[in-house]
Design a protein that fits this description.
The complex is a heterodimer. Helix content of chain A is 10%, strand content 33%. By secondary structure, chain A is mostly beta strands. Chain A has a 5-stranded mixed sheet, with no helix packed on it. In chain A, strands 2-33-32-31 form a 4-stranded antiparallel sheet, with no helix packed on it. Chain A has a 4-stranded antiparallel sheet with strand order 3-4-5-6, with no helix packed on it. In chain A, a hairpin with a 5-residue loop joins strand 25 and strand 26. The N and C termini of chain A lie far apart (112 Å). Chain B is mainly α. Chain B has 2 helices and no strands. The longest helix of chain B has 43 residues, at 50-92. Chain B is elongated and about 70 Å long. Classes of the chains: A mainly beta, B mainly alpha. Chain A binds chain B through residues 7-11, 23-24, 26, 55, 58-59, 62-63, 65-66, 243-245, 262, 264-266, 268, 280, 282, 284, 318, 320-322, 324-325, 328-329, 373, and chain B through 4-8, 11-12, 15, 31, 34-35, 37-39, 42, 44-48, 51-53, 55-56, 58-59, 62, 80, 83-84, 87.
Chain lengths: 489, 93
Protein backbone atom coordinates (compact mmCIF):
# COMPACT_ATOMS: atom_id res chain seq x y z
CA UNK A 1 0.00 0.00 0.00
CA UNK A 2 1.54 3.27 -1.07
CA UNK A 3 1.17 6.52 0.79
CA UNK A 4 1.51 9.04 -2.06
CA UNK A 5 -0.26 12.30 -1.29
CA UNK A 6 -2.62 13.66 -3.93
CA UNK A 7 -2.44 17.43 -4.58
CA UNK A 8 -5.77 19.10 -3.65
CA UNK A 9 -5.09 21.74 -6.31
CA UNK A 10 -4.20 19.84 -9.45
CA UNK A 11 -4.82 16.22 -8.46
CA UNK A 12 -1.27 15.10 -9.22
CA UNK A 13 0.27 12.24 -7.35
CA UNK A 14 3.40 13.18 -5.37
CA UNK A 15 6.29 11.48 -3.63
CA UNK A 16 5.57 10.19 -0.10
CA UNK A 17 6.51 12.85 2.48
CA UNK A 18 6.58 15.71 -0.05
CA UNK A 19 5.58 19.14 1.31
CA UNK A 20 4.70 20.71 -2.01
CA UNK A 21 3.13 19.43 -5.20
CA UNK A 22 5.73 18.75 -7.85
CA UNK A 23 3.21 19.75 -10.48
CA UNK A 24 1.61 22.98 -9.23
CA UNK A 25 3.54 23.85 -6.07
CA UNK A 26 0.51 23.75 -3.72
CA UNK A 27 0.99 22.76 -0.09
CA UNK A 28 0.29 19.06 0.57
CA UNK A 29 -0.42 19.31 4.30
CA UNK A 30 -3.20 17.02 5.42
CA UNK A 31 -5.71 18.68 7.77
CA UNK A 32 -6.00 17.13 11.24
CA UNK A 33 -9.11 15.13 11.94
CA UNK A 34 -10.49 17.61 14.50
CA UNK A 35 -10.49 20.34 11.85
CA UNK A 36 -12.60 18.39 9.38
CA UNK A 37 -15.20 16.84 11.64
CA UNK A 38 -16.76 17.01 15.07
CA UNK A 39 -17.51 19.89 17.46
CA UNK A 40 -14.23 21.70 16.74
CA UNK A 41 -15.20 22.02 13.11
CA UNK A 42 -18.62 23.38 14.04
CA UNK A 43 -16.97 25.83 16.41
CA UNK A 44 -14.68 27.05 13.63
CA UNK A 45 -17.65 27.43 11.32
CA UNK A 46 -19.60 29.44 13.94
CA UNK A 47 -16.62 31.70 14.54
CA UNK A 48 -16.28 32.27 10.84
CA UNK A 49 -19.98 33.13 10.49
CA UNK A 50 -19.77 35.56 13.43
CA UNK A 51 -16.66 37.20 11.96
CA UNK A 52 -18.15 37.72 8.52
CA UNK A 53 -21.53 38.83 9.91
CA UNK A 54 -19.82 41.39 12.14
CA UNK A 55 -17.87 42.72 9.18
CA UNK A 56 -21.01 43.04 7.04
CA UNK A 57 -22.91 44.77 9.87
CA UNK A 58 -20.09 47.27 10.46
CA UNK A 59 -19.95 48.13 6.76
CA UNK A 60 -23.75 48.42 6.58
CA UNK A 61 -23.76 50.79 9.55
CA UNK A 62 -21.06 52.94 7.96
CA UNK A 63 -23.06 53.07 4.74
CA UNK A 64 -26.36 53.78 6.49
CA UNK A 65 -24.96 56.69 8.48
CA UNK A 66 -24.10 58.44 5.25
CA UNK A 67 -26.92 57.15 3.12
CA UNK A 68 -29.86 56.17 5.32
CA UNK A 69 -32.02 53.97 3.14
CA UNK A 70 -34.39 53.47 6.10
CA UNK A 71 -35.83 56.23 8.31
CA UNK A 72 -34.09 56.72 11.62
CA UNK A 73 -36.13 54.43 13.93
CA UNK A 74 -35.02 56.23 17.09
CA UNK A 75 -36.51 59.54 15.91
CA UNK A 76 -39.61 57.83 14.52
CA UNK A 77 -40.35 56.04 17.80
CA UNK A 78 -39.11 58.38 20.50
CA UNK A 79 -39.59 61.85 18.93
CA UNK A 80 -43.17 62.02 17.77
CA UNK A 81 -44.84 65.42 17.27
CA UNK A 82 -47.69 66.05 19.70
CA UNK A 83 -49.89 67.96 17.25
CA UNK A 84 -50.66 68.22 13.56
CA UNK A 85 -50.15 71.99 13.31
CA UNK A 86 -49.35 73.25 9.83
CA UNK A 87 -48.71 76.64 8.27
CA UNK A 88 -49.88 75.42 4.86
CA UNK A 89 -51.90 77.81 2.74
CA UNK A 90 -55.68 77.95 2.73
CA UNK A 91 -58.06 80.57 1.25
CA UNK A 92 -58.06 83.83 3.22
CA UNK A 93 -54.60 83.19 4.67
CA UNK A 94 -50.98 83.98 3.96
CA UNK A 95 -49.60 82.00 6.87
CA UNK A 96 -45.82 82.05 6.35
CA UNK A 97 -42.89 83.16 4.26
CA UNK A 98 -43.65 82.50 0.59
CA UNK A 99 -47.34 81.93 1.34
CA UNK A 100 -47.02 78.15 1.53
CA UNK A 101 -44.67 75.40 2.66
CA UNK A 102 -42.83 75.28 -0.64
CA UNK A 103 -41.95 78.98 -0.36
CA UNK A 104 -43.12 79.47 -3.94
CA UNK A 105 -45.13 82.68 -3.30
CA UNK A 106 -47.88 81.25 -5.50
CA UNK A 107 -51.47 80.99 -4.35
CA UNK A 108 -54.45 80.07 -6.50
CA UNK A 109 -57.15 82.73 -6.86
CA UNK A 110 -60.31 82.93 -8.93
CA UNK A 111 -61.90 86.06 -7.42
CA UNK A 112 -61.53 89.74 -8.29
CA UNK A 113 -57.93 90.87 -8.58
CA UNK A 114 -56.69 94.02 -6.83
CA UNK A 115 -56.88 97.07 -9.11
CA UNK A 116 -54.04 99.05 -7.65
CA UNK A 117 -56.01 101.28 -5.26
CA UNK A 118 -54.39 101.97 -1.91
CA UNK A 119 -56.94 101.16 0.76
CA UNK A 120 -54.89 102.16 3.77
CA UNK A 121 -51.34 102.93 4.82
CA UNK A 122 -50.20 102.86 8.45
CA UNK A 123 -46.87 103.35 10.15
CA UNK A 124 -45.83 100.17 11.95
CA UNK A 125 -42.36 101.16 13.18
CA UNK A 126 -38.83 100.70 11.85
CA UNK A 127 -38.79 98.33 8.92
CA UNK A 128 -37.45 94.78 9.11
CA UNK A 129 -37.43 91.89 6.63
CA UNK A 130 -40.42 90.35 8.38
CA UNK A 131 -43.19 90.15 5.75
CA UNK A 132 -46.81 90.47 6.92
CA UNK A 133 -48.56 87.13 7.47
CA UNK A 134 -52.34 86.93 7.57
CA UNK A 135 -54.68 84.54 9.31
CA UNK A 136 -58.31 84.91 10.40
CA UNK A 137 -58.46 88.57 9.45
CA UNK A 138 -55.37 89.50 11.46
CA UNK A 139 -52.01 90.69 10.11
CA UNK A 140 -48.91 89.60 12.09
CA UNK A 141 -45.47 91.14 11.72
CA UNK A 142 -42.19 91.40 13.52
CA UNK A 143 -40.31 94.63 14.17
CA UNK A 144 -37.35 95.89 16.13
CA UNK A 145 -37.90 93.95 19.38
CA UNK A 146 -41.64 93.83 18.85
CA UNK A 147 -44.29 91.52 17.46
CA UNK A 148 -47.72 92.90 16.73
CA UNK A 149 -51.11 91.85 15.44
CA UNK A 150 -53.23 94.25 13.41
CA UNK A 151 -56.89 93.88 12.56
CA UNK A 152 -56.97 93.69 8.76
CA UNK A 153 -60.34 95.48 8.53
CA UNK A 154 -59.82 98.34 11.00
CA UNK A 155 -55.98 98.61 10.91
CA UNK A 156 -56.05 98.80 14.71
CA UNK A 157 -53.45 96.97 16.75
CA UNK A 158 -54.99 93.92 18.41
CA UNK A 159 -51.99 93.19 20.60
CA UNK A 160 -48.31 93.94 20.78
CA UNK A 161 -45.64 91.79 22.40
CA UNK A 162 -42.13 92.85 23.39
CA UNK A 163 -39.78 89.92 22.88
CA UNK A 164 -36.17 90.20 23.92
CA UNK A 165 -34.69 90.49 20.44
CA UNK A 166 -35.22 91.92 16.96
CA UNK A 167 -37.48 89.97 14.61
CA UNK A 168 -36.06 89.91 11.10
CA UNK A 169 -37.60 86.67 9.89
CA UNK A 170 -41.14 86.33 8.63
CA UNK A 171 -43.46 84.82 11.24
CA UNK A 172 -45.46 81.64 10.72
CA UNK A 173 -48.98 81.08 11.94
CA UNK A 174 -50.50 77.62 12.37
CA UNK A 175 -54.05 77.45 13.72
CA UNK A 176 -53.89 79.74 16.75
CA UNK A 177 -50.14 79.57 17.32
CA UNK A 178 -47.69 82.18 16.07
CA UNK A 179 -44.01 81.23 15.68
CA UNK A 180 -41.48 84.02 16.10
CA UNK A 181 -37.74 83.67 15.26
CA UNK A 182 -35.56 86.02 17.32
CA UNK A 183 -32.02 87.22 16.89
CA UNK A 184 -31.38 86.62 20.59
CA UNK A 185 -31.13 82.86 19.80
CA UNK A 186 -34.72 82.09 20.79
CA UNK A 187 -37.75 80.95 18.86
CA UNK A 188 -41.10 81.68 20.49
CA UNK A 189 -44.54 80.17 20.16
CA UNK A 190 -47.20 82.78 20.99
CA UNK A 191 -50.95 82.58 21.27
CA UNK A 192 -52.11 84.22 18.05
CA UNK A 193 -55.23 85.59 19.76
CA UNK A 194 -53.67 87.18 22.84
CA UNK A 195 -49.93 87.28 22.14
CA UNK A 196 -49.13 85.35 25.34
CA UNK A 197 -46.13 83.04 25.32
CA UNK A 198 -46.71 79.28 25.02
CA UNK A 199 -43.16 78.00 24.80
CA UNK A 200 -39.70 79.08 23.79
CA UNK A 201 -36.61 77.26 22.58
CA UNK A 202 -33.06 78.57 22.83
CA UNK A 203 -30.39 77.64 20.30
CA UNK A 204 -26.64 78.23 20.09
CA UNK A 205 -26.89 81.18 17.66
CA UNK A 206 -29.52 83.67 16.43
CA UNK A 207 -32.59 82.36 14.62
CA UNK A 208 -32.44 84.10 11.26
CA UNK A 209 -34.65 81.86 9.18
CA UNK A 210 -38.37 82.26 8.71
CA UNK A 211 -40.04 79.25 10.36
CA UNK A 212 -42.21 76.72 8.55
CA UNK A 213 -44.67 74.40 10.26
CA UNK A 214 -45.67 71.05 8.79
CA UNK A 215 -47.30 67.99 10.39
CA UNK A 216 -46.72 69.27 13.90
CA UNK A 217 -43.04 70.15 13.40
CA UNK A 218 -41.68 73.69 13.20
CA UNK A 219 -38.49 74.14 11.17
CA UNK A 220 -36.22 77.13 11.64
CA UNK A 221 -32.55 77.79 10.99
CA UNK A 222 -29.84 79.65 12.85
CA UNK A 223 -27.04 81.92 11.78
CA UNK A 224 -24.39 79.24 12.35
CA UNK A 225 -26.06 76.83 9.97
CA UNK A 226 -28.08 74.57 12.20
CA UNK A 227 -31.60 73.62 11.17
CA UNK A 228 -33.90 72.77 14.07
CA UNK A 229 -37.01 70.62 13.88
CA UNK A 230 -39.08 71.29 17.00
CA UNK A 231 -42.36 69.92 18.24
CA UNK A 232 -44.81 72.69 17.33
CA UNK A 233 -46.93 71.87 20.37
CA UNK A 234 -44.24 71.75 23.06
CA UNK A 235 -41.01 73.19 21.65
CA UNK A 236 -39.10 69.98 22.28
CA UNK A 237 -36.37 69.20 19.79
CA UNK A 238 -37.18 66.40 17.36
CA UNK A 239 -33.99 66.50 15.34
CA UNK A 240 -31.33 68.95 14.27
CA UNK A 241 -29.01 69.17 11.29
CA UNK A 242 -25.68 70.95 10.99
CA UNK A 243 -25.25 72.32 7.49
CA UNK A 244 -21.77 73.64 8.19
CA UNK A 245 -22.37 77.24 7.14
CA UNK A 246 -25.20 79.75 7.41
CA UNK A 247 -28.51 78.54 6.02
CA UNK A 248 -30.40 80.94 3.75
CA UNK A 249 -33.37 82.63 5.35
CA UNK A 250 -35.98 79.91 4.83
CA UNK A 251 -36.38 76.29 3.81
CA UNK A 252 -38.84 74.85 1.28
CA UNK A 253 -40.97 71.83 2.14
CA UNK A 254 -42.72 69.47 -0.23
CA UNK A 255 -43.90 65.86 0.08
CA UNK A 256 -42.06 65.19 3.35
CA UNK A 257 -38.83 66.59 1.93
CA UNK A 258 -37.03 69.80 2.89
CA UNK A 259 -34.78 71.80 0.56
CA UNK A 260 -32.09 73.64 2.49
CA UNK A 261 -29.78 76.20 0.89
CA UNK A 262 -26.43 76.97 2.50
CA UNK A 263 -25.04 80.43 1.82
CA UNK A 264 -21.60 79.10 0.87
CA UNK A 265 -23.06 77.02 -1.95
CA UNK A 266 -24.57 73.81 -0.66
CA UNK A 267 -28.01 72.45 -1.45
CA UNK A 268 -29.40 69.71 0.78
CA UNK A 269 -32.60 67.73 0.34
CA UNK A 270 -33.45 66.05 3.64
CA UNK A 271 -36.25 63.95 5.06
CA UNK A 272 -38.68 66.23 6.91
CA UNK A 273 -39.60 63.70 9.57
CA UNK A 274 -36.15 62.44 10.55
CA UNK A 275 -33.65 64.90 9.05
CA UNK A 276 -31.91 62.14 7.09
CA UNK A 277 -29.96 63.35 4.11
CA UNK A 278 -31.38 62.44 0.68
CA UNK A 279 -29.29 64.59 -1.64
CA UNK A 280 -26.30 66.86 -1.23
CA UNK A 281 -25.07 69.11 -4.02
CA UNK A 282 -22.06 71.39 -3.89
CA UNK A 283 -22.93 74.27 -6.15
CA UNK A 284 -19.77 76.18 -5.42
CA UNK A 285 -21.00 79.74 -5.86
CA UNK A 286 -22.75 81.61 -3.09
CA UNK A 287 -26.44 80.88 -2.65
CA UNK A 288 -27.97 84.26 -2.04
CA UNK A 289 -31.66 83.47 -1.66
CA UNK A 290 -33.69 80.70 -0.05
CA UNK A 291 -34.63 77.71 -2.23
CA UNK A 292 -38.20 77.45 -3.48
CA UNK A 293 -40.08 74.47 -4.81
CA UNK A 294 -42.47 74.55 -7.76
CA UNK A 295 -43.92 71.26 -9.00
CA UNK A 296 -41.14 68.69 -8.76
CA UNK A 297 -38.31 71.21 -9.07
CA UNK A 298 -36.33 73.11 -6.50
CA UNK A 299 -34.78 76.41 -7.57
CA UNK A 300 -31.77 78.17 -6.11
CA UNK A 301 -30.13 81.44 -7.09
CA UNK A 302 -26.34 81.37 -7.14
CA UNK A 303 -23.93 83.98 -8.48
CA UNK A 304 -26.64 85.58 -10.59
CA UNK A 305 -27.81 82.33 -12.19
CA UNK A 306 -30.91 80.37 -11.31
CA UNK A 307 -30.47 76.60 -11.10
CA UNK A 308 -33.12 73.90 -11.19
CA UNK A 309 -32.84 70.51 -9.50
CA UNK A 310 -35.17 67.54 -9.27
CA UNK A 311 -36.51 67.62 -5.73
CA UNK A 312 -37.19 63.87 -5.80
CA UNK A 313 -33.71 62.84 -6.85
CA UNK A 314 -31.57 60.93 -4.43
CA UNK A 315 -27.83 60.43 -4.57
CA UNK A 316 -26.35 56.95 -4.61
CA UNK A 317 -24.19 55.97 -1.65
CA UNK A 318 -20.74 57.53 -1.84
CA UNK A 319 -21.60 59.35 -5.07
CA UNK A 320 -20.88 62.73 -3.49
CA UNK A 321 -17.28 62.09 -2.31
CA UNK A 322 -16.51 60.03 -5.41
CA UNK A 323 -17.63 62.90 -7.61
CA UNK A 324 -15.47 65.31 -5.62
CA UNK A 325 -12.42 63.10 -6.27
CA UNK A 326 -13.33 62.48 -9.90
CA UNK A 327 -13.82 66.17 -10.60
CA UNK A 328 -10.54 67.08 -8.93
CA UNK A 329 -8.64 64.48 -10.95
CA UNK A 330 -10.28 65.82 -14.10
CA UNK A 331 -9.30 69.36 -13.15
CA UNK A 332 -5.72 68.18 -12.62
CA UNK A 333 -5.90 66.91 -16.22
CA UNK A 334 -5.45 63.32 -15.16
CA UNK A 335 -6.72 61.24 -18.12
CA UNK A 336 -10.12 60.35 -16.70
CA UNK A 337 -13.51 60.70 -18.41
CA UNK A 338 -15.39 63.95 -17.89
CA UNK A 339 -17.34 63.65 -14.64
CA UNK A 340 -21.13 63.76 -14.87
CA UNK A 341 -23.21 66.66 -13.54
CA UNK A 342 -24.44 66.48 -9.96
CA UNK A 343 -27.45 64.31 -9.14
CA UNK A 344 -30.80 65.92 -9.85
CA UNK A 345 -29.41 68.85 -11.85
CA UNK A 346 -31.85 69.97 -14.55
CA UNK A 347 -30.85 73.32 -15.96
CA UNK A 348 -29.29 76.68 -15.29
CA UNK A 349 -30.38 80.01 -16.69
CA UNK A 350 -29.09 83.55 -16.82
CA UNK A 351 -30.81 86.82 -17.82
CA UNK A 352 -31.30 86.88 -21.59
CA UNK A 353 -32.19 89.62 -24.04
CA UNK A 354 -34.64 87.75 -26.20
CA UNK A 355 -34.83 84.55 -28.19
CA UNK A 356 -34.77 81.71 -25.72
CA UNK A 357 -31.36 80.17 -25.38
CA UNK A 358 -31.83 76.74 -23.96
CA UNK A 359 -29.74 76.19 -20.90
CA UNK A 360 -30.63 72.54 -20.56
CA UNK A 361 -27.59 71.67 -22.65
CA UNK A 362 -25.46 72.92 -19.80
CA UNK A 363 -26.29 69.72 -17.97
CA UNK A 364 -24.30 67.80 -20.56
CA UNK A 365 -21.56 70.37 -20.81
CA UNK A 366 -18.38 70.17 -18.73
CA UNK A 367 -19.20 73.66 -17.50
CA UNK A 368 -22.06 72.11 -15.56
CA UNK A 369 -19.41 70.75 -13.23
CA UNK A 370 -18.77 74.16 -11.86
CA UNK A 371 -22.38 75.24 -11.65
CA UNK A 372 -22.62 78.44 -9.66
CA UNK A 373 -18.93 78.89 -8.96
CA UNK A 374 -18.36 79.66 -12.62
CA UNK A 375 -21.70 81.17 -13.63
CA UNK A 376 -22.83 81.28 -17.19
CA UNK A 377 -22.25 84.88 -18.27
CA UNK A 378 -25.35 86.70 -19.37
CA UNK A 379 -25.44 88.05 -22.91
CA UNK A 380 -26.52 91.28 -21.23
CA UNK A 381 -23.39 92.76 -19.61
CA UNK A 382 -23.66 92.77 -15.83
CA UNK A 383 -27.15 91.27 -15.74
CA UNK A 384 -27.81 88.87 -12.89
CA UNK A 385 -30.84 87.39 -11.19
CA UNK A 386 -31.21 89.10 -7.83
CA UNK A 387 -34.49 87.99 -6.26
CA UNK A 388 -35.87 84.76 -4.92
CA UNK A 389 -37.99 83.27 -7.72
CA UNK A 390 -41.73 82.80 -7.43
CA UNK A 391 -42.58 79.35 -8.77
CA UNK A 392 -45.58 77.58 -10.21
CA UNK A 393 -45.58 74.07 -11.63
CA UNK A 394 -44.96 75.37 -15.15
CA UNK A 395 -42.90 78.55 -14.80
CA UNK A 396 -40.78 80.66 -12.49
CA UNK A 397 -40.71 84.45 -12.15
CA UNK A 398 -37.52 86.20 -11.11
CA UNK A 399 -36.11 89.73 -11.05
CA UNK A 400 -32.75 90.76 -12.49
CA UNK A 401 -30.33 93.67 -12.25
CA UNK A 402 -31.22 94.85 -15.76
CA UNK A 403 -34.53 96.19 -14.36
CA UNK A 404 -36.48 93.22 -15.64
CA UNK A 405 -38.62 90.39 -14.39
CA UNK A 406 -38.26 87.14 -16.33
CA UNK A 407 -40.65 84.27 -16.77
CA UNK A 408 -38.74 81.04 -17.40
CA UNK A 409 -40.11 77.65 -18.33
CA UNK A 410 -39.93 75.22 -15.43
CA UNK A 411 -39.18 72.44 -17.90
CA UNK A 412 -35.96 73.69 -19.45
CA UNK A 413 -35.31 77.25 -18.25
CA UNK A 414 -36.16 78.86 -21.59
CA UNK A 415 -37.36 82.43 -21.41
CA UNK A 416 -41.13 82.75 -21.81
CA UNK A 417 -41.32 86.54 -21.51
CA UNK A 418 -39.49 89.49 -20.04
CA UNK A 419 -41.04 92.54 -18.42
CA UNK A 420 -39.00 95.75 -18.28
CA UNK A 421 -39.69 97.69 -15.09
CA UNK A 422 -38.64 101.19 -14.03
CA UNK A 423 -35.81 99.95 -11.81
CA UNK A 424 -34.39 96.82 -10.20
CA UNK A 425 -36.88 94.36 -8.63
CA UNK A 426 -36.05 94.09 -4.94
CA UNK A 427 -37.86 91.15 -3.35
CA UNK A 428 -39.46 87.83 -4.30
CA UNK A 429 -42.39 88.38 -6.71
CA UNK A 430 -45.82 87.15 -5.63
CA UNK A 431 -48.12 85.12 -7.89
CA UNK A 432 -51.84 85.27 -7.22
CA UNK A 433 -53.85 83.23 -9.72
CA UNK A 434 -52.98 84.74 -13.11
CA UNK A 435 -51.32 87.89 -11.75
CA UNK A 436 -47.75 88.63 -10.78
CA UNK A 437 -46.96 91.34 -8.21
CA UNK A 438 -43.50 92.70 -7.54
CA UNK A 439 -41.85 95.87 -6.28
CA UNK A 440 -38.82 97.77 -7.54
CA UNK A 441 -36.09 99.80 -5.87
CA UNK A 442 -37.79 103.10 -6.79
CA UNK A 443 -40.85 102.16 -4.71
CA UNK A 444 -43.16 101.10 -7.53
CA UNK A 445 -45.47 98.12 -7.16
CA UNK A 446 -46.36 96.35 -10.41
CA UNK A 447 -49.18 94.04 -11.38
CA UNK A 448 -48.43 91.95 -14.48
CA UNK A 449 -50.37 89.24 -16.29
CA UNK A 450 -48.21 86.18 -15.62
CA UNK A 451 -49.27 84.41 -18.80
CA UNK A 452 -48.20 87.04 -21.33
CA UNK A 453 -46.13 89.50 -19.27
CA UNK A 454 -48.41 92.49 -19.99
CA UNK A 455 -48.62 95.21 -17.33
CA UNK A 456 -52.00 95.53 -15.59
CA UNK A 457 -51.20 98.49 -13.35
CA UNK A 458 -48.44 100.09 -11.30
CA UNK A 459 -48.59 102.01 -8.04
CA UNK A 460 -46.04 104.26 -6.38
CA UNK A 461 -45.56 103.31 -2.73
CA UNK A 462 -43.06 106.06 -1.92
CA UNK A 463 -40.44 103.60 -0.70
CA UNK A 464 -39.08 100.22 -1.83
CA UNK A 465 -40.56 97.04 -0.45
CA UNK A 466 -38.71 95.64 2.55
CA UNK A 467 -40.39 92.24 2.24
CA UNK A 468 -42.39 90.38 -0.41
CA UNK A 469 -45.99 91.42 -1.04
CA UNK A 470 -48.53 89.13 0.62
CA UNK A 471 -52.16 88.48 -0.30
CA UNK A 472 -55.33 87.39 1.44
CA UNK A 473 -59.03 87.77 0.65
CA UNK A 474 -58.49 90.01 -2.37
CA UNK A 475 -56.16 92.48 -0.60
CA UNK A 476 -52.42 92.94 -1.11
CA UNK A 477 -50.22 93.78 1.89
CA UNK A 478 -46.96 95.57 1.19
CA UNK A 479 -44.38 96.52 3.80
CA UNK A 480 -41.99 99.25 2.76
CA UNK A 481 -38.59 100.51 3.91
CA UNK A 482 -40.15 103.68 5.37
CA UNK A 483 -41.87 101.54 8.02
CA UNK A 484 -45.33 101.63 6.53
CA UNK A 485 -47.77 98.82 5.81
CA UNK A 486 -49.87 99.39 2.69
CA UNK A 487 -53.17 97.69 1.97
CA UNK A 488 -53.98 97.64 -1.75
CA UNK A 489 -57.17 96.52 -3.35
CA UNK B 1 -6.90 15.56 -23.75
CA UNK B 2 -4.64 18.56 -24.16
CA UNK B 3 -6.58 20.90 -21.85
CA UNK B 4 -6.04 19.66 -18.30
CA UNK B 5 -8.77 19.39 -15.67
CA UNK B 6 -8.23 21.52 -12.59
CA UNK B 7 -9.14 19.79 -9.37
CA UNK B 8 -10.33 21.83 -6.34
CA UNK B 9 -11.11 25.17 -7.94
CA UNK B 10 -12.39 26.46 -4.60
CA UNK B 11 -9.06 25.80 -2.88
CA UNK B 12 -7.06 27.42 -5.64
CA UNK B 13 -9.40 30.41 -5.74
CA UNK B 14 -8.93 30.88 -2.00
CA UNK B 15 -5.18 30.66 -2.14
CA UNK B 16 -5.21 33.49 -4.70
CA UNK B 17 -7.97 35.51 -3.06
CA UNK B 18 -6.13 36.16 0.17
CA UNK B 19 -3.10 37.95 -1.31
CA UNK B 20 -5.49 39.63 -3.81
CA UNK B 21 -7.59 40.97 -0.94
CA UNK B 22 -4.51 42.34 0.81
CA UNK B 23 -3.33 44.14 -2.33
CA UNK B 24 -6.89 45.37 -3.09
CA UNK B 25 -7.39 46.71 0.42
CA UNK B 26 -4.07 48.50 0.22
CA UNK B 27 -5.07 50.10 -3.10
CA UNK B 28 -8.47 50.90 -1.55
CA UNK B 29 -6.77 53.41 0.73
CA UNK B 30 -5.98 55.59 -2.27
CA UNK B 31 -9.53 57.07 -2.79
CA UNK B 32 -9.61 58.00 0.90
CA UNK B 33 -6.26 59.76 0.56
CA UNK B 34 -7.52 61.56 -2.55
CA UNK B 35 -10.64 62.67 -0.68
CA UNK B 36 -8.57 64.11 2.16
CA UNK B 37 -6.37 65.88 -0.40
CA UNK B 38 -9.41 67.39 -2.15
CA UNK B 39 -10.99 68.52 1.12
CA UNK B 40 -7.81 70.02 2.50
CA UNK B 41 -6.62 71.71 -0.66
CA UNK B 42 -9.79 73.03 -2.21
CA UNK B 43 -11.67 76.27 -2.07
CA UNK B 44 -14.86 76.88 -0.13
CA UNK B 45 -16.96 74.42 1.79
CA UNK B 46 -17.35 70.78 0.80
CA UNK B 47 -19.98 69.77 3.41
CA UNK B 48 -18.14 66.54 4.21
CA UNK B 49 -17.78 65.71 7.89
CA UNK B 50 -15.05 63.74 9.61
CA UNK B 51 -17.30 60.71 10.00
CA UNK B 52 -18.16 60.74 6.31
CA UNK B 53 -14.46 60.81 5.40
CA UNK B 54 -13.74 57.97 7.82
CA UNK B 55 -16.59 55.79 6.63
CA UNK B 56 -15.74 56.51 2.98
CA UNK B 57 -12.18 55.32 3.64
CA UNK B 58 -13.40 52.17 5.42
CA UNK B 59 -15.85 51.31 2.65
CA UNK B 60 -13.22 52.05 0.03
CA UNK B 61 -10.74 49.68 1.72
CA UNK B 62 -13.45 47.02 2.08
CA UNK B 63 -14.48 47.38 -1.56
CA UNK B 64 -10.84 47.23 -2.64
CA UNK B 65 -10.35 44.06 -0.61
CA UNK B 66 -13.44 42.45 -2.09
CA UNK B 67 -12.59 43.29 -5.67
CA UNK B 68 -8.94 42.37 -5.07
CA UNK B 69 -9.85 38.96 -3.66
CA UNK B 70 -12.06 38.16 -6.65
CA UNK B 71 -9.40 39.23 -9.11
CA UNK B 72 -6.67 37.45 -7.14
CA UNK B 73 -8.64 34.22 -7.02
CA UNK B 74 -9.41 34.28 -10.72
CA UNK B 75 -5.81 35.11 -11.56
CA UNK B 76 -4.59 32.22 -9.42
CA UNK B 77 -6.86 29.78 -11.21
CA UNK B 78 -5.76 31.22 -14.52
CA UNK B 79 -2.10 30.92 -13.58
CA UNK B 80 -2.57 27.31 -12.48
CA UNK B 81 -4.39 26.55 -15.71
CA UNK B 82 -1.53 27.99 -17.75
CA UNK B 83 1.03 26.13 -15.65
CA UNK B 84 -0.68 22.80 -16.13
CA UNK B 85 -1.12 23.49 -19.82
CA UNK B 86 2.56 24.29 -20.14
CA UNK B 87 3.61 21.12 -18.25
CA UNK B 88 1.31 18.97 -20.36
CA UNK B 89 2.58 20.60 -23.51
CA UNK B 90 6.21 20.00 -22.45
CA UNK B 91 5.38 16.38 -21.62
CA UNK B 92 3.91 15.74 -25.08
CA UNK B 93 6.92 17.13 -26.89
Amino acid sequence: MHNSPICPGCGSENEPGADKCINCGNQLIAMPAWATSGPQRNSLRRKRIVLWSSLVIILAVFTWFNYPFLPNPIILIFSTPTSDLSSSWSPGKWPMNGGNLSGSAYVPWTGEYPEGVELDSIYVGPSTRSAPVISNGTVYMGGESTVFAINADTSETSWESQPTGPVHGTLAVANDTLFVPLRNKEILALDAISGSRRWSFKAESPFVGSPSVDKGIVYSSTQKGRLYALDAGTGNQIWTMDAGDAITSAVAITDNKIAVGVSTGGLFIIDARTGDNRLKVRIGGLITHPPVVGGKSVYVVSNGNVLSFDVDSRALPWAYPLRLIWTQLWLWQVPVPTPPGPAGFRWRATPMEDGPESSIRMAKNPEALYLGSHPVPSPIPGAEFVTTPAATSDAIYIGSTNNSVYSLSAKDGKMLWKFDASSIPVVQPTVVGERLYFGTSDGTLYSVDRINGQEEWSLGLGSPLSAPVTFASGVLYARTEDGRLHQIT
Amino acid sequence: MFIPRIVNINGNFRSGAIPGAVVGAFLGIIPGIFLVMVLSGGQGSYYVGLFEVLSFAVISVAAGGLVGSIIGGILNIGALFLKKAFIRFRGIH
